[in-house]
UniProtKB/TrEMBL annotation:
Family note: Belongs to the shaker potassium channel beta subunit family.
GO biological process assignments: methylglyoxal catabolic process
Domain of life: Bacteria
Recorded name of the encoding gene: mgrA
Keyword NADP: yes
Pfam families for the chain: Aldo_ket_red
SUPFAM superfamilies reported for this sequence: NAD(P)-linked oxidoreductase
Any one Gene Ontology molecular-function term assigned to this protein's record: oxidoreductase activity
UniProt-recorded name of the protein: L-glyceraldehyde 3-phosphate reductase
Keywords: NADP, Oxidoreductase
Organism: Limnobaculum zhutongyuii
Amino acid sequence: MSHFVNPQRYDSMQYTRCGRSGIQLPKISLGLWHNFGDVTLYENSREMIRTAFDAGITHFDLANNYGPPPGSAEINFGRILKQDFQHYRDEMIISSKAGYTMWPGPYGDFGSKKYLVSSLDQSLKRIGLDYVDIFYHHRPDPDTPLEETMSALDLIVRQGKALYVGLSNYPADQAKEAIRILNSLGTPCLIHQPKYSMFERWIENGLQDVLQEEGVGSIAFSPLAGGLLTDRYLSGIPEGSRIASDSPFLTSDQLTEARVTQIRQLNEIAQRRGQKLVQMALAWVLREGKVTSALIGASKVSQIEDAVATLNNLEFSQQELNEIEAILSR
Ligand code: NDP
């Protein structure tokens, strides 16, 4: 049966303007990196998209390689769109990316025009769309001239295959240059997608200033550090968690004793605030308004509900911020 969409879906979500653009993004966005591939129960993935959209999450983030196997998250998302959201495409911001290894040989990786254009063509076929809203270059390419990669993004917009373009994982100096080139081509950079959380703060050393100066938005990926900044690992490694899975991206060696101590101390502050740790971690990423949206992942519906409830308390006292800094510096 197709889904009856919640008519109140815009009542409680908050939206933030993305840099100096016409686009507003929900403060919480949903990424499909894990738990939307063919190894996951389709009905669970479908239920998570339904829950998200019903809560006002209008932005869904994909990449060519999300799965496993690579490409399957786009196929499954396309199937969900067709089954449940046929009439809602225009209420969604759907993104995809290319930049990591996708197919064998010299044309299925990094940042050539050949790779970006053909990869997006493949993504559009998999999702079943005429265009994506945002197309990203997924990571910097040390060998392809930045002019070529940026002109590929510009071409893709002119072809009508993407409405906006973004950069991901670009350090401050390369982001600045890429933004300059895109401006000169007449296709401004909408957004940068960096990793950012209490445990990963590199963007505070330069990148955030560049984005602010240039009027480019930002969407923080892995704001929960893959699940570390939740109550998931407060007492061990539970079955079904990312660490317990065979994902190479979060492994038990990252759960050091010092880390667990930090997580417990942060959890105490969250409890004092009347929040779950996941909610405090997301509110922290969104503090000061420098980040447009927090891009979460989820393995179950309740995790999306937890994330959305962050909006009930986004404020921090100076004392809370100081306490958090003290814990993070230990
Ligand atoms: P998060 O840091 O939000 O981690 C998500 C994981 O945390 C979930 O899968 C779940 O793991 C756990 N979790 C979430 N909510 C809760 C909760 N309420 N209670 C307990 N555990 C919870 O983000 P991801 O690392 O998943 O990345 C998010 C998105 O960012 C991706 O889907 C992708 O779109 C994007 N991304 C982009 C990259 C890039 O290079 N541009 C790289 C990586 C991600 P569990 O399985 O344990 O339940």
